[in-house]
Amino acid sequence: MNAPVHAKLASQLPFYQPVADECTVFETAWRQQLPVLIKGPTGCGKTRFVAHMAAKLGLPLFTVSCHDDLSAADLVGRHLIAGGDTRWCDGPLTRAVREGGICYLDEVVEARKDTTVVLHPLTDDRRILPIERTGEELQAPPGFMLVVSYNPGYQHVLKTLKPSTRQRFVALSFDFPLPEVERAVVQHEGGVDERLAAQLVTLAGQIRRLTGYDLDEAVSTRLLVYCAKLIASGMAVRLACRTALVEPLSDEADTLAALMAVVDTQFGH
Amino acid sequence: MNAPVHAKLASQLPFYQPVADECTVFETAWRQQLPVLIKGPTGCGKTRFVAHMAAKLGLPLFTVSCHDDLSAADLVGRHLIAGGDTRWCDGPLTRAVREGGICYLDEVVEARKDTTVVLHPLTDDRRILPIERTGEELQAPPGFMLVVSYNPGYQHVLKTLKPSTRQRFVALSFDFPLPEVERAVVQHEGGVDERLAAQLVTLAGQIRRLTGYDLDEAVSTRLLVYCAKLIASGMAVRLACRTALVEPLSDEADTLAALMAVVDTQFGH
Amino acid sequence: MNAPVHAKLASQLPFYQPVADECTVFETAWRQQLPVLIKGPTGCGKTRFVAHMAAKLGLPLFTVSCHDDLSAADLVGRHLIAGGDTRWCDGPLTRAVREGGICYLDEVVEARKDTTVVLHPLTDDRRILPIERTGEELQAPPGFMLVVSYNPGYQHVLKTLKPSTRQRFVALSFDFPLPEVERAVVQHEGGVDERLAAQLVTLAGQIRRLTGYDLDEAVSTRLLVYCAKLIASGMAVRLACRTALVEPLSDEADTLAALMAVVDTQFGH
Amino acid sequence: MNAPVHAKLASQLPFYQPVADECTVFETAWRQQLPVLIKGPTGCGKTRFVAHMAAKLGLPLFTVSCHDDLSAADLVGRHLIAGGDTRWCDGPLTRAVREGGICYLDEVVEARKDTTVVLHPLTDDRRILPIERTGEELQAPPGFMLVVSYNPGYQHVLKTLKPSTRQRFVALSFDFPLPEVERAVVQHEGGVDERLAAQLVTLAGQIRRLTGYDLDEAVSTRLLVYCAKLIASGMAVRLACRTALVEPLSDEADTLAALMAVVDTQFGH
Amino acid sequence: MNAPVHAKLASQLPFYQPVADECTVFETAWRQQLPVLIKGPTGCGKTRFVAHMAAKLGLPLFTVSCHDDLSAADLVGRHLIAGGDTRWCDGPLTRAVREGGICYLDEVVEARKDTTVVLHPLTDDRRILPIERTGEELQAPPGFMLVVSYNPGYQHVLKTLKPSTRQRFVALSFDFPLPEVERAVVQHEGGVDERLAAQLVTLAGQIRRLTGYDLDEAVSTRLLVYCAKLIASGMAVRLACRTALVEPLSDEADTLAALMAVVDTQFGH
Amino acid sequence: MNAPVHAKLASQLPFYQPVADECTVFETAWRQQLPVLIKGPTGCGKTRFVAHMAAKLGLPLFTVSCHDDLSAADLVGRHLIAGGDTRWCDGPLTRAVREGGICYLDEVVEARKDTTVVLHPLTDDRRILPIERTGEELQAPPGFMLVVSYNPGYQHVLKTLKPSTRQRFVALSFDFPLPEVERAVVQHEGGVDERLAAQLVTLAGQIRRLTGYDLDEAVSTRLLVYCAKLIASGMAVRLACRTALVEPLSDEADTLAALMAVVDTQFGH
């Protein structure tokens, strides 16, 4: 128990293709002990970027996928009963503070409000984590960094970050990578040649420019990699595109037909 | 305890009549370690298809019917108290990961949000399942596959799959089978002769084309099989159709009358 | 404990006056191992019919009145602590499966969604009941039958049976019995002579045809029997009608006056 | 423990002034083993009437004031832990069934739905109370009677009795008593002379006929008795009327002034 | 434990300046064993009045501030586990009944519905408190009195006292005291001279007559006392008025400016 | 356990630059034993001010960040089970009362209603804290002070302070500091020279005057300090402004472009 949950030491550096100056900004914020907010669409590489930076800076990384039922105790820790005895068990936030690592809250707007309030004393100049249940008050070491992310393009009627939380972070805005960058990612991760990777990235650009259809979100780099993998394993290109790029985006017959038309334009028919 | 809950080893291959290339797509996705999303109407054979593929690939299958109150602990596991002692009890998702089988979440949009978030680290390139309560982090073996399904035709105002979840899957779209396929299913499962099975499938097609009536969903292949069984056991055709094909579809007098008119056109009166 | 809760063996056959071919349909569905959905208004005899059929087929009957707070555990069972020890206690659904009897869920639309999902593996060709808490998976014996009922005339804004649940059943539609049948019931159960029973049934027909008044539901056969009992014990006819047929139907002065006018037309004044 | 909670044996007969044939109807329903629903405004004597009838019939009376958080266990009973031991403790409904008395649910529409469903098997011809937690099934003795009441004049947007519950009862409608009856009650309970009691009843009639003002409910007989008591103990009539008849009815200045004008007209100024 | 919680014996009489005949009405209601409802704006002295009357009548006083999460058990009592043993612990209502004192529920409309239903058997002629968990039924002694209060001027969309609860009380309406009374209170409690107290009361009157501004509630006597205390300790009059009379009333710039203009008119500038 | 949670003794005085007479008002309120309400926008220095005053007055400070799930027990304390034994554990409010310090509730409008009701007996002339679970009633010593804060500019549809709570406090209104004050803060905390600090403050003023854009809240002094820190550690001014002043304020492309235009006007391009 208390074994490494989400923590990964930087034994090897995860592949990450920088887009702009995001690595510099992240590292400067870390050196200045400022918390970072990352904004960007689904599947554009936010999680991969944080893993890359943690490895580069040699810091343990504790990742938490936020959701409606995530409570403050899930972050900070709780008493567990084991063998008739009660033992305190640190949560991922507490472990990141103790070990001086990065705590990364993915999709932070999904979390309950009481969860985000726990972050306040860690995000001003005090940099403390009070643990009310044990009476401890941890002073975060210089290495500790708090990173949160969310997707501004996906509208949440009731879920936003309160200004009083939001103004505690410096912010980085991510978008889909530039074509040459995305091509390199698809080629490297999907196991296809440069030409097919370029064709898939061109196709993605055409789909992302489609307007007037009921698309909650445009096709992600992750789906491009999925598509490349299917093709690399022998599936016909058109079927792979339908399976990995078209069907995951919509349930509307009109939208699906429009997306397949774009596919057929790109790859002939 | 910890006995096989939903798991069935592939001792015999469940009957499944392929419609298109769904078996190839499923198997390719499994080999490429990609999760699969199956979309399709009620009773069109999604569950049967997954059972068939699990048997064909020789994988244990863990099926979970999702609902409002399904929590992450129901999937991952929980500590149970037995005889004054606390023991950890794996949930179906954890068991599928440990045993390298298929975990199938039926009607995944019905589940609570915190349930779907648990799936995220299993559906990107990490393929891990962190079990926070025990401090374990399971690395999914190559055989493990996650499959989810839902019915896009039945509208849920508040229940949709978040794009950040949805874009983690390759997707297959199911529909009612082609007439010759459906006829074979009705004949095989319902125990009637080819001619009656063909008549029932024709009738189903006519009902499915009915518009302007308050029908939440069209008649399913399952109901056709029910109807065939009632006729095979000696019930009059018209009564069997009313009982198995008409009354289950609606409570509105007008709709019921219109449906019976279709029945009477098909089978004389 | 674990004593028969709702289960009644068919020592004597409860009185039931068939209306159409509902007994045949029910018995055929039972022989074909198909689940049955019964639709019909309040007090028309659905519960009595199921009790009659259970007795006729020699099956134990487990009745559950569904409501908002009925959980899956209420159906399947739970661990109870008794004398410092934990014992598993089967719920009525599990008992019906183990003993090969009928489990009857009355007003099933009132139940929570997670309750109805528990029924799914019992209503397709698998006919299994997984009990996650104990790790058991019960295979339903041939005698087991699932019966559910609800009242389509009473509108529930938020409560309907999901198509994916509904299409798992063959369905029977009940209505108030034909006059001669209802007269026999009122005479037999209410203890009045044939003429008075006939007059009460005529009155009920007139009330059921009243339109333009705020009546949630028409007068039931059960209320006719109540009225007959009050008269049989010496109460004046008009007072008995007001007490058993009029006041239970509405709180609106206009509606009550209209109903009493119908009474006075039938029985003079 | 398990001592008489709400139960009162009929050692003395509580004062009750009959209005019409309500005593006869109640007694007939009891002899015929039919449940009774009492409708009527606040403070018109419903609770007193039931107490009177219980005493007259020599039955123990178990009264439950219903509310939002009343659960089925509050009626049926629960296991309590005492001295390290678990003991079953009957609720008031179970005690009424065991002892063959009256269980009276006051303001039944306020109760949660799962509470009213518990009443169903007791209100049809089975007259049983299944206690799922202990595995018992009680057969109600002939003396047992279920009585429920509510106030149809006070509008509940979300709270009504379901038709399937409502049609299980014969019903009695109460209103404020006739002037001569109400005068006798005020004189007897309030300790004033006949003339003053008559004046108060006349005043109540005038207030009850006030229309066009924001009055949720008219003045009750109970408030008339309060007013009489204040006068009997020496308070000035006008101040007593303001305190007991006017201020309890409204918070609106216009309404209060209109009510005081009625008081001043009756008692001079 | 079970030490006096809110109970204060009347060792000294708290200062209270009567406004009208409220002391007489309260005492008469207490002698007649009638419960009292006090209506009035925030900070007008309701709590002080009840404390004064309890001391004058020599009764212990149990005060409960009501809120959304106040449950019936908070009033009646609960079993607590201490040292491995379970002990019953009376709540403030039960203690008031046992000791024959006053139980005062402040802002009773804020309480949950099940809380107010607990009061019903104590507020009719039975005057009993059934304690279901222990099986006790307490008969309230003559000294016991129930007092509830609320603020009719502050609108609650969903929170009102049900007529069936409200009509169980005689009612007293409070308002801000007359100028000469309020002046005496401000002088006595705030520690300022008569002239300044009179000026503050005049200012309060002007603020209370302000219309057309977004003021939830007018300035209370309590805030006047606060202002007097700040001035008495040396703060400039204008700053004291801004701090104690203006800023607590609103957050709107226009309203604050209008209030300060009234201050400057009264005290020059 | 029971170790200092949020309490900090005034070993060193935190830097605070007074804006007006807020220090005098605070100290006078503390000497007069009056509770204080602080209103003001996010990041304007409310928390820092309270820390400064606590240190100046030599009082321990207990800070609580309020949120939706903060219960009264979180403030007052609870019984914890440790080593099989139950021990009472004071909450921060109780500790502040016992030790005669300041209890500061940050963003008090976010707390549940039952939390604020707990404060009532501490905020009138009684100055008591009843602890119902232990039967204690604490009399607050002269040093104890209650301070609450909230942000009136950020609109809460459902969350406001009830007038009955609000009128228990004297109130201080904070705004962003005057330019010369803010410049000193940015220079001191951000580690930049006077000229750059002045430029950043001028820029903040321009951003705060922007109207017609979707800005929930204007840029705070805290973000200015963040920006200064990034520049001081070598980041280009424009990138630092984008990271610390622009991206944290909005997700709208139009708004972000308008903000960057203001940045470019200030710092050339």
From TrEMBL, chains A, B, C, D, E, F:
CDD domains: AAA. Pfam families: AAA_5, CbbQ_C. The keyword ATP-binding applies. Residues 182-265 form the CbbQ/NirQ/NorQ C-terminal domain. It comes from the Bacteria. This is CbbQ/NirQ/NorQ/GpvN family protein. Residues 35-169 form the ATPase dynein-related AAA domain. The keyword Nucleotide-binding applies. One of its GO terms (molecular function) is ATP hydrolysis activity. InterPro entries: ATPase_dyneun-rel_AAA (IPR011704), CbbQ/NirQ/NorQ/GpvN (IPR050764), CbbQ_C (IPR013615), P-loop_NTPase (IPR027417). Keywords: ATP-binding, Nucleotide-binding. Belongs to the CbbQ/NirQ/NorQ/GpvN family.
